[in-house]
Amino acid sequence: MQSVITPSHCRDSTILLSADPLKNGGEVTSMEIVAVAPEDVAEEAVAALPEEIQPVKVEAITFEPLQKSKVDNVEITLSEKVSHPESQDIVAKFLDVAVKPPRVSGATKLKKMLDETDELIVCPGVYDGVSARVALSCGFSAMYMTGAGTTASRLGMADLGVAQLHDMREHAEMIANLEPYGPPLIADMDTGYGGPIMVANSVSQYIRAGVAGFHIEDQIQNKRCGHLQGKKVVSAEEFYMRIRAAKCAKDRLNSDIVLIARTDANQQHGYDECIRRLKGARELGADVGLLEGFTSREEAENAVKELAPWPLLLNMVENGATPIITTHEAKAMGFRIMIFSFASIAPAVVAIRKTFQKIQTDGVVGTGKDLTPKALFEICGLKDAMTIDFEAGGEAFATV
């Protein structure tokens, strides 16, 4: 017999537990716990079990009777039967330990993903709370807060350097804290918003906001989107000054925040100057490099090779300066992070315009029947909010 459910607030954990007898208060049989969970959490949880019912293998969490209060999902499989007289208390104790999400910051999580795996970290570009919630519901391992999207959605303006630190930091803080111990958020930091003191202040504010990583670039302060023409960059030494200031700020706060050095020099000075600048940033302690605006696939492939084993980030903006490169191709090339800056805002503009035109022509919106107000709010954390109210003793949202 099997049933499957997944922990809503514990995205990295799942448990496989022989729990059928618990429905009637019976004894728990021995179980094999198999799934995906942080090893330290799994080991701590197993240590709470008596020796005679130690599971064969632990990597997950599940428990149907606690579904309403703690877990949304359970994967139950019967294994070799071994009964224990205090099975109810034992399983409860196990779950108290195992269900707790690991308290790992987004910055530490992103750093470990880079240091301890060889995966391509795919980040959809999000520009507001709704797009971030959709990305979370899709199960991405990380997200990217686009500066262009933030400027467009928050200020209603083109990405011409008009968004400042307070705009970007407040937006990033909101997105990063929708699920504080969930997928790490990488955020645009433009030029750092000033000289070295201001760059250090910007990094400190991003760290306190819960941002996991940021990229800082070498454009002049009067900057623009990296996929527009007419870009100008500062001297290499001024770029290095920004990198030094950013590195000092993260070190001073003993933060794992991932420092991504971005150069936009390709348009003005060419590929070779970009490589020179990125090598300089690497020597100063930048964790990742970003060459914005590759003009060919060959440039992208060569950059990875010339800077290896230093991790590189690829910004994929369709219909922009860079030819289309898929996630599979990027991984094969050796990129470690791939962001899709316009992945949510571009389709949103198309869909919103189409819907508004339908109102003008047909007099209706034409929303699909599956997307009710409640269904939309469920994407935005409705169930979590209801649970908070219920566990606090409230009854205001028992029915919605």
Automatic annotation (TrEMBL):
GO terms for molecular function: methylisocitrate lyase activity. Belongs to the isocitrate lyase/PEP mutase superfamily. Pfam families: PEP_mutase. CDD domains: ICL_PEPM (cd00377). It comes from Lachnellula suecica. It catalyses: (2S,3R)-3-hydroxybutane-1,2,3-tricarboxylate = pyruvate + succinate. The gene is bcpA_1. Coiled coil: none annotated. It comes from the Eukaryota. PANTHER family: PHOSPHOENOLPYRUVATE CARBOXYLASE (PTHR42905), PHOSPHOENOLPYRUVATE CARBOXYLASE FAMILY PROTEIN (PTHR42905:SF2). SUPFAM superfamilies: Phosphoenolpyruvate/pyruvate domain (SSF51621). Gene3D superfamilies: Phosphoenolpyruvate-binding domains. This is Carboxyvinyl-carboxyphosphonate phosphorylmutase.
